[in-house]
Design brief:
- Helices cover about 65% and strands about 0% of the residues.
- It has about 300 residues and is an all-alpha fold.
- The protein has one domain: Glutathione S-transferase Yfyf (Class Pi), Chain A, domain 2, CATH 1.20.1050.50.
- The protein is elongated, with a radius of gyration of 24 Å.
Length: about 300
């Protein structure tokens, strides 16, 4: 009598053919498919970078917003916030095009390459890391900055669309939402073809998630038009803020990404068990050691 485990931790220990792997190899200590510095490194690095970026800009605002950020025509504003605006737009454009281009070029060389189960598990961990990074960016663009923006414009009336609160929100993190959602799709399209390959069509989950980020950027134009020519006061419930709610609904597509890739993990486990050469090993993949010992002791 043996209890069948369902986790994937032990899938990397199977005796599979040594196919060519990509990325950080499981042979390096601490760099396995589900190690913190292995498959999960993308999540740690990505989330940390964007959180630190948002915090750094917020600290910058603390010392410059009231001194230089009130008058967009002043020289002080030009040296600080206008310079920040140009830097953000340039960096986001170059970084986005460079990353997307790399994913397409590299992905085309990988999409038809056979990989081992442990490599596919690592790729799913990286994919989840990208989803985690996406979640952080969506929080920053839809909660962190908007709440500051409402407080700022209820206190200091906007003179142009370039204000200390608008510049990091509208012109950096809103575009980064498109950058990360499309980039995550490209990674799934080429690195996880059994889930998001071209033969499976374009997934509704990514359609909703990418649409959410595009809606946010498009809403910037309506927001500025509305505040300039209709209702100048910053009230959260004004009609031209309503489309921001659509963003929240559309962004719920992100939950389906975890579900779709989790289903593939169960498929990998089944394949690993089917390929096991020793019948005694079937059902042991992923089972916790204490569970196996308890079952064996009782049998």
């Amino acid at each position: 009598m043996r209890q069948k485990g369902i986790a994937m931790a032990q899938a990397v220990e199977t005796h599979e053919p040594q196919l060519r792997l990509e990325g950080r190899q499981a042979g390096k200590p601490g760099r396995g498919p589900i190690d913190w510095l292995g498959g999960w490194r993308t999540c740690i690095v990505g989330c940390t970078i964007f959180l630190l970026l948002a915090i750094a800009i917020r600290i910058f605002q603390q010392f410059t917003a009231w001194k230089y950020g009130i008058d967009a025509s002043s020289k002080g504003f030009g040296r600080t916030y206008r310079a920040l605006y140009y830097s953000e737009v340039l960096a986001a454009t170059v970084g986005t095009l460079g990353w997307w281009g790399y994913l397409v070029r590299k992905g085309r060389t990988l999409v038809n390459r056979e990989v081992t189960h442990d490599e596919e598990v690592r790729r799913i961990a990286v994919f989840w890391g990208l989803i985690g990074t996406t979640s952080v960016i969506l929080y920053i663009m839809a909660s962190f900055w908007p709440n500051q923006d409402g407080a700022w414009h209820q206190t200091a009336v906007r003179d142009t669309a370039l204000t200390p609160s608008h510049i990091p929100m509208f012109y950096l993190f809103f575009p980064l939402g498109i950058t990360i959602t499309v980039g995550t799709y490209l990674y799934g399209r080429y690195w996880l073809p059994k889930i998001y390959g071209a033969s499976n069509g374009f997934p509704w989950s990514f359609f909703l998630l990418i649409s959410a980020s595009v809606t946010e950027v498009a809403q910037v134009a309506m927001n500025e038009w509305g505040h300039s020519l209709w209702i100048t006061e910053e009230i959260f419930a004004v009609p031209f803020h309503w489309p921001f709610v659509w963003y929240g609904w559309l962004a719920s597509g992100i939950f389906a990404l975890w579900a779709e890739s989790a289903i593939r993990l169960f498929g990998i486990e089944k394949e690993v068990e089917d390929e096991a050469t020793d019948p005694a090993e079937v059902g042991r993949f992923g089972a916790r050691r204490e569970e196996i010992e308890a079952v064996e002791a009782a049998s």
